């Protein structure tokens, strides 16, 4: 029996060839060799629209078309095959997405309950023998019934299979049952939505020596984990928050930062409005390879006016209770701002992303000084980046008085309290610190050492100037009613 089985296995390559030949005659296979062009539109949230155009010749009548090398993350319910001819030459009756790819483990799983062969080599003579085995399980290894015994693992042997199951493919494949009304060559376009493709904007800003100007370079970072490549693709990007019914769980992989000095003369991507979003188009085809992160230039702008701001922001809880000392050496935040306007050599809608800021030191080397994330920013809006906390500027805030004036419930309390904020400046130049205080309930400033500005119904601010190597005080008293 073993010899007969071994003889059958020796003929296996011929049988497999014949099997595939029969399959090929019944199934028209289309690969990337048939591809005429491909266009990829990528959205922010792990979503892309692929339009794959291929030139095919199908027999007239009913066909089985295996459209290979599509995205392994395709949403098959969105797939649409159309002919580019004037008439409807293609009618799709049924489609199946085969994404269960051929691997040794998958092959074992498909053969549970079926018979395979085990080839073992004699350690002394080198003679090979073949035994029949039934696959009982493939979970965390393989369990086989060989004759009247059970074996786990295949020590010193190998497994051979009589054929490859029809639903195992080496590439993600959309199999369509369709009717072709012509036997002439025709351009067929398969469009579908897919996951596994994402993009984000990354920006590199370089400050000049006095921090009054900056140069900005924008990159688009693309990540492809969709299971296939897109060669010479027409690339478009949609910036905006597109609503999707299905939740998206995958996270984009952040690309590497590219130094601004390596991208001189980088062109802008063309942009246009699309519904309530913005569409960016690369002016040349590009390859988006499988399991690749790549970057393409989005924009380049120079001599953008920038301003630096020091901000100390308080909390509203201490206006309703006795707190005494509110902290020693409180950090003062540093912000950098610039305008997204044509007057400042920008003025294009900026996709959300991360802005990384650099500045040259005294030796001319570029050093990283902070980063912040921006949201989608239309033209003529101000971009404000928090870069960190000032090293040489500190604040000491204390509650110097607190008393309850009236009230017996949570809705008619009236409190009065006073505060002292001391700002210290260790720099060699004078600076100004914006002190912003959230004010709860109905509030009124009773006294102050500097004039305040009411920002909103719940916030006020003071601008405190602090001399070089010196300090300044802000004193104020406030009454709040809840």
CA-atom Rg in angstroms: 34 Å
Query: Percent range for helical residues?
Result: under 10%
CATH uppermost class of the domain at 307-347 and 388-481: Mainly Beta
Q: Count the DSSP helices.
A: 3
Shape: elongated
Mean pLDDT: 85
Question: What distance lies between the first and last C-alpha atoms, to the nearest angstrom?
Answer: 93 Å
Structure description:
The chain is mainly beta and 482 residues long. Among the domains are: 197-304, no CATH class; 307-347 and 388-481, Immunoglobulin-like (Sandwich), CATH 2.60.40. 6% of the residues lie in helices and 54% in strands. It is built from three helices and 30 strands. It has helices at residues 2-10, 12-26, 104-110; strands at 28-30, 35-43, 47-56, 61-68, 80-83, 90-98, 115-121, 128-137, 143-146, 149-152, 157-160, 173-180, 186-194, 197-207, 213-224, 230-239, 270-274, 277-281, 286-288, 292-313, 330-339, 353-360, 366-374, 382-406, 414-425, 431-438, 442-448, 453-456, 459-466, 471-481. The strands form four sheets. Strands 14, 15, 20, 21, 22, 23, 24, 25, 26, 27, 28, 29 and 30 form a 13-stranded mixed beta sheet that branches. Strands 2, 3, 5, 13, 16, 17, 18 and 19 form an eight-stranded mixed beta sheet that branches. A hairpin with a 5-residue loop joins strand 22 and strand 23. It is elongated. The relative contact order is 0.12.
What would you say about this model in short?
The chain is mainly beta and 482 residues long. 6% of the residues lie in helices and 54% in strands.
Topology summary:
Elements: H1 2-10, H2 12-26, E1 28-30, E2 35-43, E3 47-56, E4 61-68, E5 80-83, E6 90-98, H3 104-110, E7 115-121, E8 128-137, E9 143-146, E10 149-152, E11 157-160, E12 173-180, E13 186-194, E14 197-207, E15 213-224, E16 230-239, E17 270-274, E18 277-281, E19 286-288, E20 292-313, E21 330-339, E22 353-360, E23 366-374, E24 382-406, E25 414-425, E26 431-438, E27 442-448, E28 453-456, E29 459-466, E30 471-481
Parallel strand pairs: 1-4, 2-16, 14-22, 20-26
Antiparallel strand pairs: 2-3, 3-13, 4-12, 5-13, 6-12, 7-8, 7-11, 8-9, 9-10, 14-15, 15-20, 16-18, 16-19, 17-18, 20-21, 21-24, 22-23, 24-25, 25-30, 26-29, 27-30, 28-29
């Amino acid at each position: 029996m073993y010899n007969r089985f071994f003889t059958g296995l020796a003929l296996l390559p011929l049988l497999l060839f014949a099997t595939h030949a029969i399959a090929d005659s019944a199934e028209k296979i289309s690969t990337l060799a048939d591809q005429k062009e491909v266009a990829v539109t990528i959205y922010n949230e792990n979503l892309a629209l692929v339009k794959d155009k291929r030139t095919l010749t199908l027999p007239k009548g009913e066909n089985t078309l295996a459209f290979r090398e599509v995205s392994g993350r395709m949403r098959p319910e969105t797939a649409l095959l159309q002919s580019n001819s004037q008439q409807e030459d293609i009618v799709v009756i049924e489609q199946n997405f085969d994404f269960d790819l051929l691997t040794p483990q998958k092959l074992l799983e498909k053969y549970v309950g079926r018979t395979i062969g085990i080839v073992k080599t004699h350690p002394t003579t080198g003679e090979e023998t073949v035994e029949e085995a039934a696959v009982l399980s493939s979970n965390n290894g393989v369990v086989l019934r060989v004759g009247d015994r059970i074996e786990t693992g295949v020590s010193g042997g190998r497994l051979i299979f009589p054929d490859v199951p029809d639903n195992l493919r080496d590439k993600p494949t959309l199999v369509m049952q369709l009717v072709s009304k012509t036997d002439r060559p025709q351009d067929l376009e398969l469009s579908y939505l897919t996951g596994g493709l994402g993009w984000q904007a990354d920006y590199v800003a370089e400050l000049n020596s006095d921090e009054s100007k900056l140069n900005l370079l924008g990159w688009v970072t693309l990540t492809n984990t969709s299971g296939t490549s897109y060669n010479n693709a027409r690339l478009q990007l949609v910036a905006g928050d597109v609503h999707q019914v299905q939740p998206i769980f995958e996270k984009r992989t952040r690309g590497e930062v590219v130094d601004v000095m390596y991208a001189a003369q980088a062109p802008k991507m063309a942009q246009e409005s699309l519904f309530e979003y913005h569409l960016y188009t690369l002016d040349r085809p590009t390859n988006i390879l499988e399991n690749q992160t790549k970057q393409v230039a989005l924009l380049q702008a120079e001599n953008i006016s920038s301003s630096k701001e020091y901000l100390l922001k308080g909390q509203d809880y201490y206006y309703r209770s006795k707190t005494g000392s509110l902290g020693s050496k409180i950090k003062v935040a540093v912000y950098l701002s610039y305008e997204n306007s044509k007057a400042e050599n920008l003025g294009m809608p900026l996709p959300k992303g991360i802005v990384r800021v650099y500045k040259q030191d005294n030796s001319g080397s570029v050093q990283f000084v902070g980063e912040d994330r921006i949201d989608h920013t239309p033209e003529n809006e101000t971009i404000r980046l928090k870069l960190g906390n000032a090293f040489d500027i500190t604040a000491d805030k204390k509650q110097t008085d607190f008393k309850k004036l009236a009230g017996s419930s949570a809705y008619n309390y009236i409190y009065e309290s006073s505060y002292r904020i001391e700002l210290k400046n260790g720099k060699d130049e004078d600076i100004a610190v914006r002190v912003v205080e959230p004010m709860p309930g109905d509030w009124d400033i009773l006294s102050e050492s500097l004039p305040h500005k009411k920002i909103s119904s719940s916030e006020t601010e003071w601008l405190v100037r602090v001399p070089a190597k010196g300090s300044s005080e802000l004193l104020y008293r406030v009454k709040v009613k809840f």
